[in-house]
Design brief:
Helices cover 46% and strands 22% of the residues. The chain is of the alpha/beta class. It has one domain. The strands form two sheets. Strands 1, 2, 5, 6 and 8 form a five-stranded mixed beta sheet that branches. A three-stranded mixed beta sheet has the order 3-7-4, with helices on both faces. A hairpin with a 4-residue loop joins strand 5 and strand 6. The longest helix is centred in the middle third of the chain and has 37 residues. The radius of gyration is 24 Å and the shape is rod-shaped.
């Protein structure tokens, strides 16, 4: 039995909006001071998965990246670890003074969707092998769940300091927006790479020789 994790990094979706804030007759600094406080929200999409017991061993083996001559994939769990980001930038733009200030509202959603648990068709027809294989795949699902929750907590904790929760200033609103978007993009890109490595490492721990031996023994004892 060979079980591998298939993941892909979702492309970020940035939505940016700019608007004038406060009394236009007040001073620039006064209007800047009245901007809403920066806000950073991080949410994790509740994890769910589909079951598919219709694929043959040969197809799952190819899907897992293994060679049929050396590995036979009885079960496989695939998921896409990704994020989407919405940015709303509140701006005071003083064009006469060639200056702008702003505060962001950023919402990041992390997910492991779509997720599918595959049990090979040949295995699904044998109760013992099906149950043992499914129990193993549920360990992979639980790793996905744990990493998703941990990554969301880490991002919620680290994101404001990494991006900066202070009032932002630039020569104009366009420059202000560009700096924010690039900063968020670069930080999240590295964040997702780091947690992808964590996810891969933990999934490899599930596929230990001891775990494979346990699954094999579970059916051997019952026969």
């Amino acid at each position: 039995m060979n079980l591998r994790l298939a993941t892909a990094l979702a492309v970020c979706a940035f939505l940016a909006g700019c608007g004038r804030e406060g009394n236009p007759f007040a001073s620039f600094d006064t209007r800047c001071a009245k901007l809403p406080a920066p806000r950073f929200d991080v949410v994790a999409t509740p994890l769910s998965f589909d079951r598919d017991d219709t694929r043959p061993i040969a197809e799952l083996t190819v899907k897992s990246g293994s060679a049929l001559a050396t590995h036979r994939t009885m079960g496989l769990t695939t998921a896409m670890f990704g994020q989407s980001t919405d940015i709303d930038l509140h701006v005071v733009d003083d064009r006469r003074g060639s200056r702008a200030c702003g505060t962001p509202t950023v919402r990041v959603e992390l997910s492991m969707q779509p997720m599918t648990v595959f049990i090979a068709r040949e295995v699904a027809e044998t109760p013992c092998q099906r149950d043992a294989t499914l129990a193993h795949e549920m360990k992979h699902v639980e790793v996905f769940r744990q990493v998703l929750e941990e990554a969301a907590r880490a991002l919620e904790r680290e994101f404001p300091d990494a991006i900066g929760a202070e009032l932002r200033r630039a020569a104009n609103a366009a420059e202000l927006q560009q700096r924010l978007i690039l900063g968020v993009r670069d930080y999240l890109g590295q964040f997702m790479k780091d947690w992808q490595r964590t996810l891969d490492a933990r999934q490899r721990e599930v596929d230990s020789p001891e775990e494979y031996a346990r699954v094999a023994a579970a059916c051997a004892v019952s026969q």
